Sequence to fold (271 residues):
Amino acid sequence: MLTRPARDVEPEEVVETIEKGMRATGYNEFSLLSLSCSDYLSLPAVGMEIKNRLKDENISLSLPSQRVDRFDENIANIIGGMRTSGITFAPEAGTQRMRDIINKGLTNEELLRGVQTSYENGWDKVKLYFMIGLPGEIDADVLGIAETVRWLKTECRQYGYDNKRRPLNFNITISNFTPKPHTPFQWHSVSTSEFTRKQELLREAFRGMRGVKVNYTDVRISAMEDFVGRGDRASPPWCVAPGNWARGWTPGGKVSIGHLARGNRRSRSRV
Fold:
């Protein structure tokens, strides 16, 4: 496989690059970016070394969405000990059945352990990413998102009471699944009307749930992502046509599926 064996950057090289960049630019926050920072075996060592070198300079480290099943106290100490930073996990689906279908490889127990670890190490807010419209999804899977969040809040409540902490809050992002080419689900059909209906199911399920903020991806943006992601060589002329790009990717733009289809037909006629 192309990703094996793992090619990790030497810890000392990472540390020196960070320290040099922070001192040269004057920034007080940096981030380590990769597809999965948790897979970097030297992450705890790098984090502690940077923490020691820059401990008096009020520097903040942030990491992208964490693999919750690999989030432990070592990583929590790295992030939590350097000013205030956020913590983000991506369970993707609200039920175990759905996570098994998309091969997420995450159990409810692992999710709870990661959230509890972050709460016990000082975070009062956790951000979670979920998707709707996944292949094989039924309404019970959609409602399982709200049920999972409610369960996490309940399980963490006792720790807050015992330690006189404010209740754990959640910032939830609900994205619409848009198939990507050359993936197992590339031919899965999507429906903006179904996205809208499932969003309404979740709005009703989350109504009255305190300490939870829910953000929904605009279905028009998802339609554009699907159009661009699965379009063929006839699509680029339409995408770069004057005005089309701005109207399509601006959340306030009035773009309909019919508009996309007409634009695609015009592109084909010119190619």
